[in-house]
Amino acid sequence: MSYPFFHKLIDRFGKISSGFSKDAPAKSSWNDGGLSQKLFDEYDRRMADIKSTSIEATATDLKQRNVFEKGTAIVFASCSQNTMNLQIWLETIFDLDVVMVYEPSQFYEWLFRFADLADLVFVERDSFVGDAPAFGTFMCAANEAYPDCPIVVLSDEFETSSFELVEEDQKFDITLKSPLSQTSIWLAMKAAGDIALNGKKVTSSFIMSKASAA
C-alpha cells in the first residue's frame, strides 16, 4: 500500500490547520514523524500478506517486516527426531528462539510463564497419549494465555495433506501432519505470518487455502 487514503487525509488537515492564524503560537503538527506516522506504518505493514514463494524468501520477509516481534516460539511436545527437526528448522531457517517443553507435567507452568514472551505456540497432540479431554483442556488454556498468537498443532493422526481445515469450534489455527518436512513447516510459518499480520479474524480455511496454493 504505497500511500493510503488516511495519509492524504491527515496531510490535508495539516494544511488547513496551518492557515488558521499566522499570529497563533507555532505548534508542531501531531502527525509530523510522531505517533500517528508510526500507527500508519503499522497499519500498512499489517494490511499486507506473506506472498513469498520460497522458504528462504518467506524467512526473509518475516524477519524484515518484524512479523514475530519477540522472535520466540514455544513447543509443547515429546522428545523425538520429529520435534528436534522442528526446533532446528525454526532456529536455523526462521531465526527464532525456541523453547522446548518435553515434560507434560510442566506444560501448564511453561504455558503461562511464556504468555507474554512468545509469538508462536506449537503443540504435539500425540504427546497427550490419547487423552483427548486433557488435550482439549490444555488447548483452551493455550488460547487464553496466547489470544493473539498463531497456535499450531501437530500429530501423526492428521490427514496426509500438510494442512487440515480446522473446525470453527477447535482451539487452534493450523494443523500439521507428522513427520514434519521443511515444506510443511514453511507453509505453516507462512500461514502463521498472515495470522500475526491480520489477526485471527482471518479464517483458518482461508489461510490454509492460500498457503496450499502458494
Question: Outline of this structure?
Answer:
This protein is an alpha/beta fold and 214 residues long.
What do you see in this structure?
The chain has a 5-stranded parallel beta sheet, with helices on both faces. Helix 7 packs across helix 8. The protein has 8 helices and 5 strands; from the N terminus they run αααβαβαβαββαα. The two termini are 21 Å apart. It has helices spanning 5-18, 35-47, 55-64, 81-92, 107-113, 132-145, 182-198, 204-213, and strands spanning 72-76, 97-101, 120-124, 151-155, 174-177.
The ordered H/E elements are HHHEHEHEHEEHH
Rg over CA atoms: 21 Å
Structural class: alpha/beta
Oligomer: single chain
Query: Helix coverage percent of residues?
Result: 40-55%
Low-pLDDT segments, ≥5 res: 1-10, 15-22, 24-31, 160-168, 202-214
How does the major sheet shape up?
A: 5 strands, parallel
Query: What is the strand tally?
Result: 5
N-end to C-end Cα span: 21 Å
Q: Strand order, biggest sheet?
A: 2-1-3-4-5
Shape: globular
Tally of contiguous helical segments: 8
User: Kindly state the mean pLDDT as a whole number?
Assistant: 78
Strand residue content: 5-15%
Architecture blueprint of SSEs:
Layout: H1 5-18, H2 35-47, H3 55-64, E1 72-76, H4 81-92, E2 97-101, H5 107-113, E3 120-124, H6 132-145, E4 151-155, E5 174-177, H7 182-198, H8 204-213
Parallel strand pairs: 1-2, 1-3, 3-4, 4-5
Helix pairs in contact: 3-7, 5-6, 7-8
Defining key terms:
5-stranded parallel sheet; disordered C terminus; 214 residues; disordered N terminus
